[in-house]
Amino acid sequence: MRTKLHRPxxxxxxxxxxxxxxxxxxxxxxxxxxxxxxxVKEVKQNTLVVETSDGKQQEVMTDPNxxxxxxxxxxxxxxxxAGERVVVHGMKMNNGQVHAQLVKFGKPHANxxxxxxxxxxxxxxxxxxxxQGESHEHSGH
Length: 141
Description:
about 140 residues; mainly beta; about 15% helix
């Protein structure tokens, strides 16, 4: 006598779930992280034209969700002008275009990215070390 193994059949719900997930998985694999570095030649609505180091011009798509940072401080698209050097972090779409998620430009702050817009404090100069043979005091030892 043979015993029958009990295996639950694939239900319609399982099949439907798999069918709905497959296109999302395919789309996710169709996009790749992309970086574009160069000089902004033109700022248009929803598009940046960037000239890369090899002299080619590349259009980068933007949208209201694209973030902008100038010298480590959050700014708006209106702050980006032609002539700025940029690093664009985005996704390469199936059609080959790059869609910007973050556009960085400006010089990095000497104090690092934690410096906020409107912060007018200047960095304190480093203390001058004592001359050779000169004594100095430490408190709290």
